[in-house]
Amino acid sequence: ILRTGSGTEFSLSLIMNNVSVITMFFLSGLNETVNHRFVLFFLSLLCYCIIFLLNLALTVTIILDKNLHEPMYILLCVFCMNALYGTAGFYPKFLWDLLSPVHVISYYGCLIQTHVVYSFACIDVSILTLMAFDRYVAICQPLKYHSFMSKQRVIKVACFSWFTPFCIVAVNIFLTSRLKLCSSYISRLFFIVTLACSRAETIINSIVAYITITVYVFHGLFIVWSYVYLIKTCVKSTEKRAKFMQTCVPHLLSLLTFLVTILFDVMNIRLGSIVLPQTLQNFVTIEFLVIPPIMNPLIYGFKLTKIKKRICTVMFFIFR
């Protein structure tokens, strides 16, 4: 039982056959936010509102404007929809925890949130891979582009790129749900496997996790190869170089932003508890839910000419 200062009680575990079955988790990683919770709540709410409005605006703009129903913009639309999906799985609960006197989350609520957050990250990698392939075909194989990257095919592939990571992460979460846990205290904002009673039980989890990581490392290698090939190709042609600067630079900036935030998160997992204070660990843990969802719509909105013109037209009619 967890007892708060107001006398409210929360059941953290249920004893069955001398085994502690965790039903609630206590988020100990948020303990240091108590003194600044109202400031953090305001900043987090402002951040979420900006993310929601920017990505929704770009999504709606692409859906409503038939001139933007091209492969590159369809993928961008899916990219923004994924940002809405991932942040919706994190921010509402996080905002509630900042104002709550006790930071708890149900066992199944934690599994669902973990699934949403990590499937969001994997889907981002899949979409970035599709964007890289789209640009490769558009610049290196322009005569085949419209036949190979038709609207119907792009929509099908985009749906597949969403559904597959969703299922892969679901398998990882299912394996996690089978573990017997020996603690109900989570220091990271969403991290359960480290609470397992026996390391032997996590062997299958580790194998599946490494397979998942390998799959997305190959995604990353393909992205790197495609852009290296694009750069080598575009150096030889002024026309292709201009096309690369116009359409590929936003993708590269998005990719760089995403990779840097993920790299910091991996470093935090390995070294964070040793060299970083808890507050900074928390920020590094959630930065891929803060920086890319804000930066991506801004990068594409300002860099891609068609979207910029469409947004300017809408803003003109609103504020005239």
Automatic annotation (TrEMBL):
Keywords assigned: Cell membrane, Disulfide bond, G-protein coupled receptor, Glycoprotein, Membrane, Olfaction, Receptor, Sensory transduction, Transducer, Transmembrane, Transmembrane helix
Highest taxon, organism lineage: Eukaryota
Transmembrane segments: 12-30, 36-60, 72-91, 111-133, 154-175, 207-231, 252-271, 283-302
Name recorded for this polypeptide: Olfactory receptor 5F1-like
Gene3D superfamilies on file: Rhodopsin 7-helix transmembrane proteins
Domain G-protein coupled receptors family 1 profile: 54-300
A GO term for molecular function: odorant binding
Matching InterPro entries: GPCR1_Superfamily_Member, GPCR_Rhodpsn, GPCR_Rhodpsn_7TM, Olfact_rcpt
Membrane topology: Multi-pass membrane protein
Species name: Oreochromis niloticus (Nile tilapia)
Cellular component terms per the entry's GO annotation: plasma membrane
One Pfam assignment: 7tm_4
Subcellular location: Cell membrane
